[in-house]
Design goal:
13 helices, three-stranded mixed sheet, alpha/beta
Length: 328
Amino acid sequence: MQIVPASILLQISKDFVDHRSRREESWYWYSEGDYGGAIPFAVQSLYRGQNKRYVPMLPSISRGMSSQDTGELWKYTISDQAKIVLRLAQSRWFSRELDHHPITPHAANQKLELDRIALAQHYGIPTGYLDLTDDFNVSAFFATCYETKSGWQPVTSGTGIIYRVHPLEISNYFPLGPQALPRPTEQCAWVTELPLCHAFDGWPDVKLMQFNHERHIGEYFLEMFSGGERLFPPAPLADVALEILACREIPADLIEKALESFSNDPHGIRIRHLKAIRKELTKITTLNNYRRLLTDEKVSLLLADIEWRKKMLQDVKARARAIRRVPI
């Protein structure tokens, strides 16, 4: 694959100077049953940036395993199967916490579809989804910078990569909008769901662009997004996600639901492996009763913030209504 100079990113970046204003003015409603959503019709391409290439490019729920990717979970080692079960349970814990967030009843009142697992993915919980964005500059930030304990820094050596797809040709890409949660909004977020343990590499109509890193290119995108602060605004849900990932416990009922889900998947786990998987889970986590993380106190602080309420709980507006969801 040809490797291009990083300066090409700056040339493409110029085409996205007014992207966000055009995006915000182009939402179209669709209806499916009792709920619906919206699609920004100004979008022509979706992007995903990484500061290095991973082969295979797996969804986060399947990363870091010792087993070779086969597309069949039951062929993984017992320890790897247990890790994936735990990750699914963690995403469902985050989903349960959304019950207590003001955005959930607000979305229901607006009859707006809320993809909870997609939101879990975007707040850092491993899932079967893959993050994308319709803003090239956001993908370029992630392709040219890396996170450290002291903040984001520009990558200075090696090669980065940006994926590009055209939703006109592929219909299973979905925007995390137009709800106003801060992180998905700032990152112009989309997701796509990958089949269990399958890689993104080789998907039809996915284009790749690899480039040589240069410090000043990373610094350019760091400055554009205020050192990363614009893309990661503080939010209680971000704290919830961090606590879920950091704690050494998990609600037992969520583990059971995850086991049931994978047992019902023809590519998932086998009944004969359940005992061994449960034993392995006791080594990596503690099974407890459900513990609420997004407390009433935290929610009250949100609702007491008038500016937050104006921004996050505003009526969702769209230009026009479509009969049903269609590819862009």
